[in-house]
Design a protein that fits this description.
single chain, 257 residues, mainly alpha, Endonuclease III, domain 1, binds iron/sulfur cluster
Length: 257
């Protein structure tokens, strides 16, 4: 695959995503992603976003979004300084509460992580200071993934992105798209595939000037068709190749799309 093809494909995908926007909602959505700045977030907001990632894991994003207000009420606004003192009895109470997502591992993780986050904040005098002391993206990723419960590789990327750090999240949507385009060997979450995804995204970022959060957003919208901002997906489980501008796609050529 020639390198310029990455940028060409990205631009064609971006063109399609913008075309499917409801009003200018896609642009607004992408703008919010690029404007996020972790240095401006309070520690409590950072932890709240971690909880949102944990609760959303395995669900359609809109499920947790629609429940968010009641979840905040039942989890004391996800205030880690309060949650850190919740014990096993509180977990049992929450497991009987119909207003929360009754997944014991997720509830346990939120309470456990509140303790870990509280310790981290005290040790580094704030999350922002912690980020300043951990500037290497790969080491930061490993540190977060290995310190907190219920954060695997993909959910850690999701969390880091949600607090404004510049990453591409190599989730199933991105892996499937990159595989169909012929950029990675399989859809599997292997180290080789993740590394290739990061390199390609970095290359597109350098060539286009868009940051990784923006690029991630374009790919994600193209595959998921986030219905709050656009009319539908293109490269979803059953891809709509005839509506897609990427004519040189490997999958398309192989399937006469
Ligand atoms: S599989 Fe189809 S929809 Fe997806 S990128 Fe290729 S041509 Fe476009």
């Amino acid at each position: 695959m020639k390198k310029h093809s990455y940028v060409t494909s990205f631009e064609l995908i971006r063109k399609k995503v913008l075309e499917l926007s409801i009003g200018n909602k896609v642009e607004e959505h992408l703008k919010i992603r690029t404007e996020l700045n972790p240095a401006q977030l309070e520690d409590k907001t950072v932890f709240k976003r971690m909880c949102a990632v944990i609760l959303s894991s395995g669900f359609n994003a809109s499920i947790v979004k629609n429940m968010w207000d009641q979840l905040k009420t039942e989890f004391n606004d996800f205030d880690f300084t309060v949650l850190k003192d919740w014990g096993p009895e509180k977990i049992e109470i929450l497991m009987k509460n119909e207003k929360v997502i009754r997944n014991k591992n997720k509830i346990r993780a939120i309470i456990h992580n509140a303790k870990v986050f509280n310790n981290l904040i005290h040790k580094h005098q704030g999350f922002n200071k912690f980020l300043q002391e951990n500037k290497d993206p790969e080491l930061l990723f490993i540190s977060i993934r290995d310190s907190f419960y219920f954060l695997g590789s993909i959910t850690t990327f999701d969390f880091l992105k949600r607090i404004g750090l510049n990453y591409i999240k190599p989730d199933i949507h991105v892996r499937r798209l990159f595989h169909r385009l012929g950029w990675i060997d399989s859809m599997k979450e292997t180290n080789k595939n993740l590394s290739t995804i990061f390199k390609i995204a970095e290359y597109i970022s350098t060539e286009t000037g868009f940051n990784l959060n923006y690029i991630d957003g374009v790919f994600w919208l193209f595959c998921s068709g986030y219905k709050e901002v656009m009319t539908g997906p293109i490269c979803c489980a059953i891809p709509k190749c005839t509506e897609c501008y990427v004519k040189h796609c490997k999958y398309r050529k192989e399937n006469n799309g």
